Recover the amino acids of this structure.
């Protein structure tokens, strides 16, 4: 589901059409720092990111893009949506929470992988260029007719010129939307191929489209299928159902282990985004299951008594002693309880247990060590945070903690450079340049710190 650009073409004039088209073309190559500058609500969570990567890995292999460096970025948005931009796949937390089974969200990932593998964005840019040309030509012809009408004092000719300009832009817009609908159907079919190649069910895709169709029916909205960039849900179901049901894996269910991880992910998102009663509503059919217990513990941590939350997380750890994210939650509870030394122990355990070596957990460990505040703990914090940043280079928050640790140790040049890095990856380029310039004056020319500061100073801020 590539980003819906229908709203970009609200105006039918050639000039506005050109400007909107250019905006879409630029957005497909935006860097993550520019997304931060635009205040895109990006979500970072080690547990959720690990699960989504596990979902995507076999799909990416089947699509032939596993070595293309595809990043998956989570967006804090309750709507069911996902889209691709360049080599990045964006998935809303709403899509993760509303998908009741792993297979449903895996189908979404497979669809987006179809866009990437099919080179749809590159061809979209070509279509945009073609549409812009059509709009410009129509605008010039219309302008010429208007001028001629004015010169001959012919009102009808001038009106016709306006109609040519408007009509040319409309034709270009409809042509572009038609092209997008075709690419959406192609991505759907590619997704079926990837799911079958990885021995996974195609049922989740149909479930997703049925959800869209139900929501559309309940809304009572009347939609012109020729005025949108995606096929209508009932059309997608009709196009896919026969093909999907032919798959030998159509009725295959997700493993209980994967389903549990999915449910715990949903519990976490619900607890943080939907308030206190969300997890109990979500798991009312299994109120004593581990996912429901996890949701209850998170709710108690966020809204209740920290002592009770601590007891509940210990119960979770007894049930899954090798779960790094239960240890992470234990660290969060202890930090909120102003027990940083014990929190550091919990985070250290989480780092040790983490099978995917997320960069987020060492940064949390480092944050706790900073709160301990001794020279030894600060030095350890720097090591841990740097370990995290080696794995997660664009983590702006990590650089801010690194700056704090260096600052408390009195290592000012390193603190200023880390602050520059944090601002840079947070999209605050001017602040980054200011701190980089301050840091550079304190480094010996040619040293790694001096060179990195120069890189930031020389960085050309992307145009908005």
């Amino acid at each position: 589901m590539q980003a819906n650009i229908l709203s970009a073409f609200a105006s039918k004039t050639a000039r506005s059409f050109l400007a909107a088209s250019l905006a879409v073309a630029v957005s497909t190559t935006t860097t993550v720092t520019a997304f931060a500058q635009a205040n895109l609500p990006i979500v970072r969570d080690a547990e959720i990111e690990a699960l989504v990567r596990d979902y995507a890995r076999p799909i990416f292999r089947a699509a032939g893009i596993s070595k293309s460096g595809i990043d998956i970025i989570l967006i804090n948005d309750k709507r069911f949506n996902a889209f691709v931009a360049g080599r990045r796949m964006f998935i809303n937390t709403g899509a993760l929470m509303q998908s009741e089974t792993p297979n449903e969200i895996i189908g979404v990932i497979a669809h987006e992988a179809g866009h990437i593998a099919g080179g749809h964005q590159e061809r979209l840019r070509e279509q945009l260029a073609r549409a812009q040309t059509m709009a410009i030509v129509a605008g010039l012809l219309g302008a010429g007719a208007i001028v001629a009408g004015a010169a001959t004092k012919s009102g009808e000719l001038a009106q016709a010129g306006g109609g040519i300009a408007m009509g040319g832009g409309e034709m270009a817009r409809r042509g572009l939307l038609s092209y997008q609908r075709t690419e959406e159907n192609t991505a759907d079919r590619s997704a079926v191929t990837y799911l079958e190649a990885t021995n996974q069910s195609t049922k989740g895709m149909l479930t997703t489209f049925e959800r869209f169709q139900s929501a559309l029916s309940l809304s009572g909205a009347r939609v012109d299928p020729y005025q949108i960039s995606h096929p209508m849900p009932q059309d997608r179901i009709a196009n896919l159902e026969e093909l999907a049901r032919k798959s030998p894996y159509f009725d295959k269910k997700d493993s209980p282990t994967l389903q549990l991880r999915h449910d715990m992910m949903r519990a976490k998102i619900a607890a943080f985004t939907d308030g206190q009663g969300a997890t109990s509503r979500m798991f009312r059919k299994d109120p004593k299951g581990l996912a429901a217990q996890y949701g209850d513990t998170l709710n108690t941590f966020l809204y209740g008594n920290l002592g009770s939350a601590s007891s509940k997380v210990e119960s979770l750890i007894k049930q899954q002693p090798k779960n790094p994210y239960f240890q992470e939650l234990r660290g969060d509870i202890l930090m909120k309880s102003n027990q940083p030394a014990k929190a550091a122990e919990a985070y250290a355990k989480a780092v040790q247990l983490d099978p995917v070596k997320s960069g987020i957990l060492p940064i949390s460990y480092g944050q706790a060590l900073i709160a301990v505040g001794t020279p030894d703990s600060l030095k350890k914090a720097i090591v841990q945070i740097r370990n995290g940043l080696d794995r997660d280079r664009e983590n702006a928050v990590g650089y801010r903690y690194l700056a704090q640790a260096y600052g408390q140790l009195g290592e000012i040049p390193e603190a200023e450079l880390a602050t520059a890095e944090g601002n840079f990856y947070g999209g605050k380029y001017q602040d980054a340049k200011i701190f980089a310039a301050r840091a550079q004056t304190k480094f010996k020319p040619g040293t790694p710190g001096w060179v990195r500061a120069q890189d930031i100073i020389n960085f050309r801020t992307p145009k908005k």
In short: Residues 6-245 form one domain.
